[in-house]
Design brief:
Helices cover 62% and strands 11% of the residues. It has 453 residues and is of the alpha/beta class. The chain folds into two domains: 86 residues, no CATH class; 232 residues, Rossmann fold (3-Layer(aba) Sandwich). Keywords: Coiled coil, GTP-binding, Hydrolase, Membrane, Nucleotide-binding.
Length: 453
C-alpha cells in the first residue's frame, strides 16, 4: 500500500512539473506578456497624463491665452480615456470558436484541449447552444445562463446545453462556463473556448457570426474523417471570410482512429481529405499557400483518444480505448495544439492590442502637440516680452542720454548766463563807481569854489 502511495505521489509531482514546464514554454505566454507590458505602458501613460493635466491647469490659471478652452477640456478628459482602455485591456483575451456539423466531435476536442471532461458529449446531436468556457479566480466552477445572473452548478450543463434535454435554449443562446484558472493552463493564459451547435441545425449563420465570431482570433473546423467537408461548412467559412479579414482557420479531421480498421486505405483517404481541405483553404478562401496549410492548418486526430490519454480512469488499462497507431495521433493532436497556440497568441496580440497601441500613440501625440503649442506660444510671448523690454530699455537709455545732454546744456547755459550777468554787474558797478568818483570830484570842486567866493 505504501509503495503504491509513493508511486502515485511521484507520478503527480512529475505531472505537475511537466505541466509547469509546458506552461512556461507555451506560445500563449506571448499574449500574457504583451498584455502585462501594454498594461504597464498605459499605467505610465496615465501618470504622464495626470502630470500633464496638473501642469496645463497651472498654465491655464496663469495665462488663458496659452491654451484654448476646448483643447484644455479635451486634455482633462484623457484620464478617463486611459482608464477605460486599461479596463478593456484587463478583459482582453484570446478566443477560439469550434464549429462543424453535429456529432463531429467538437465538444470532445474542446474537452481534450482542456484536459478534462467539461462539456457534455455523447451520440447524436449533443450541444444545443453556444457554450463558452472562460476563466475565473473562484475555486469552484459555475455556469451562467442568458436568462439569469445567478450562478448554476456545472452539473446542470447536462440539462442546459444538451440537445437531448427537455429544457432547450435557442441555438443562438450563449451559456458561459466559468472554470477555475488554476485547473487549466489554456484558461489561465486568457484563452476562451467556444463550442457551437452543429451548423446544420440552423440556417441563421450570419447571426451566429455577428453574435459570437467577430471577436474570435481562431476558428477550428472539426470534420469527421468518415465524411468530408460539406457545403454548409464551406458556406459558414465563406461568410466568416467576408466579415473578417484573413481569418485563421484550422481543419481537424477527427476520428482518425477509425482508420485502424482499414489500414490499407489510410494514405489514400488522408490524401483525399488533404487535397479537398487545401483546395478550400488555399484556392477558394485564399488564406494561405498549400505548404503552409498542409503543415500548419490541417491535422488528422482522434479527440477521443487525446481526451482519454489526458483524463485517464485510474482503474482502466493503460491501453484501454486506444486503437492501433494512437501514439502518432496523440503527437498529431499535440502538434495541432502547438500550432494553434502560436497562431492565436500572435493574432490576438495584433488584433487586440494594435488598436490600444494606436490609441496610446494618439493620446501621447495629443499631449505632445498641446504641450508643444503651449511651449511655442510661451516662447513667442517671451520673445515679444523680451522685445518690449529691449525697446523700453533702449527708450529709457535714449531718454537718459537726452536728459543728461539737456542737463549739461542747461548747466552750460546757466554758466554762460552767470558769467554774463557777473560781467554786466561788474561793469555796471565799475561805471557807477566811476560816475560816483567824478560826481564826488565835481562836488568837492564846487564846494571849494564856493568857499573861495
Amino acid at each position: 500500500m505504501s509503495g503504491s502511495i509513493i508511486h502515485e505521489k511521484t507520478a503527480s509531482l512529475e505531472l505537475a512539473r511537466q505541466i509547469s514546464v509546458n506552461s512556461a514554454n507555451s506560445p500563449l505566454k506571448l499574449f500574457t506578456q504583451a498584455k502585462t507590458t501594454i498594461t504597464q505602458i498605459f499605467k505610465n501613460i496615465a501618470s504622464y497624463v495626470d502630470y500633464s493635466n496638473k501642469f496645463l491647469e497651472e498654465v491655464n490659471n496663469a495665462d488663458r491665452n496659452l491654451i484654448t478652452d476646448d483643447k484644455y477640456k479635451d486634455i482633462q478628459q484623457l484620464n478617463d480615456k486611459v482608464n477605460r482602455i486599461l479596463s478593456v485591456i484587463s478583459r482582453d483575451h484570446m478566443k477560439v470558436v469550434f464549429f462543424g456539423r453535429t456529432s463531429n466531435g467538437k465538444s470532445t476536442t474542446v474537452n481534450a484541449m482542456l484536459r478534462e471532461r467539461i462539456l457534455p458529449v455523447g451520440m447524436g446531436h449533443t450541444t444545443n447552444c453556444f457554450l463558452q468556457i472562460e476563466g475565473t479566480d473562484e475555486a469552484e466552477p459555475y455556469v451562467l445562463t442568458p436568462e439569469s445572473d445567478e450562478p448554476k452548478s456545472v452539473s446542470s450543463l447536462g440539462s442546459i446545453g444538451n440537445a437531448l434535454s427537455r429544457e432547450k435554449l435557442d441555438s443562438d443562446s450563449l451559456v458561459k462556463i466559468l472554470w477555475p484558472k488554476e485547473k487549466c493552463r489554456l484558461i489561465r493564459d486568457d484563452v476562451i473556448l467556444v463550442d457551437s451547435p452543429g451548423i446544420d441545425v440552423s440556417a441563421n449563420l450570419d447571426q451566429w457570426i455577428e453574435n459570437h465570431c467577430l471577436d474570435a482570433d481562431v476558428f477550428v473546423l472539426v470534420i469527421s474523417a468518415e465524411a468530408t467537408i460539406t457545403v454548409a461548412e464551406k458556406k459558414f467559412l465563406h461568410n466568416v471570410a467576408q466579415r473578417l479579414s484573413n481569418p485563421n482557420i484550422f481543419i481537424l479531421m477527427n476520428r482518425w482512429d477509425a482508420t485502424a480498421y482499414e489500414p490499407e486505405s489510410v494514405e489514400s483517404v488522408r490524401q483525399q481529405h488533404l487535397d479537398r481541405g487545401l483546395e478550400f483553404l488555399c484556392d477558394e478562401l485564399k488564406l494561405c499557400d498549400r505548404k503552409q496549410a498542409s503543415e500548419h492548418r490541417m491535422f488528422f486526430i482522434s479527440a477521443r483518444e487525446a481526451l482519454l490519454s489526458r483524463n485517464k480512469d485510474p482503474t482502466a488499462s493503460p491501453r484501454s480505448g486506444f486503437n492501433e497507431g494512437y501514439q502518432e495521433r496523440l503527437e498529431e493532436f499535440s502538434k495541432f495544439e502547438h500550432e494553434f497556440e502560436e497562431c492565436i497568441s500572435k493574432t490576438a496580440v495584433q488584433t487586440k492590442f494594435e488598436q490600444h497601441t494606436n490609441r496610446g500613440k494618439e493620446i501621447i501625440a495629443s499631449l505632445r502637440e498641446t504641450t508643444a503649442n503651449v511651449c511655442n506660444k510661451s516662447q513667442i510671448l517671451k520673445q515679444e516680452s523680451v522685445q518690449k523690454l529691449t525697446e523700453m530699455d533702449e527708450k529709457s537709455n535714449f531718454l537718459e542720454h537726452e536728459l543728461r545732454a539737456m542737463t549739461e546744456s542747461a548747466k552750460e547755459k546757466i554758466r554762460h548766463i552767470s558769467e554774463d550777468v557777473y560781467k554786466r554787474v561788474a561793469q555796471t558797478l565799475n561805471d557807477e563807481i566811476k560816475r560816483y568818483v567824478i560826481y564826488n570830484r565835481i562836488q568837492k570842486q564846487k564846494l571849494k569854489a564856493n568857499k573861495i567866493s
